[in-house]
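TICKET #2291
ISSUE: user wants both folds in one file
ATTACHMENT 1:
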Amino acid sequence: MYIVSACLAGRNCKYDGGNNECPWVVDFTMKNKCVLVCPEIGRLGAPRAPVEITGGRAVSRDGKDVTDEFVKGAEDAWKLAESAAEDAGETIGGAILKANSPSCGCGTIYDGAFRGKLAEGDGFFAKLLKSLGIAVMTEKEKIIW
């Protein structure tokens, strides 16, 4: 079973209320057992102000520190994925996450200045998955296990 960012599968859970539908990811979810998760929507809702990571903290454009919501949202998403895999008698084979996201970004995230510039780093959910030994990639990589 694979974990997939719900926004990539067309779910409207992005901070602005939209999605980041990616055709090859949608196709992947139709051909493989997947659990769709959004570490942000349950704790923060949408639409809302965008968030970037600065100094290890998740901060919204309007200056609100939402780090706790991101940490708990990552934990919630992992529990959901772990439970779905257990219920299906599967193991988690990897994750396809939204590039550059403060939750799901893998390798690069926005730099925290809300200028559209990238910096090295991982989002909170990607970091959690990596710490658990889960292979993580983004929709930009198009590498299938």
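ATTACHMENT 2:
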Amino acid sequence: MKKVFLAGVVAAAMMAGQVAIAGDTDPLFVNLVSDGHRGTMGLTFSSKQQERGHPLTVFLNDEAVRIAAKSNAQKFKSEQELIAAILAKGGTVIVCPMCMKHYGVAKEDLIPGVKISNPEIAGGALFKDNTKTLTW
């Protein structure tokens, strides 16, 4: 009986280790809805996960679309630097077009590399196998 129990514990430990290993490079999709301090926290968290090998997509919507506007460069300097770093490392940053309209952010005002989202772009990233999601 003890041998069966021990074998079960060993098997469970091995499977747990495999799950952790399998998750090391899972894609991350971050739904960022805030600007300011919360936006900075979300972008910082996202970039740290990207540095750990997770392919990253950040979806800026609601108030967060203001972060991506060149006209807000002074107000959101650190956030725009984080976005530039995410993009430079191969990440994707997409922006909600409805939210852009609501907050008066024009396509021409987007910082370089940021893409206007659509169902194909967002869905392609969100529903990629093993993707983890987080809203900030």
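RESOLUTION: both attachments delivered.
EXTRA DETAIL ON ATTACHMENT 2: The longest strand covers residues 28-32.
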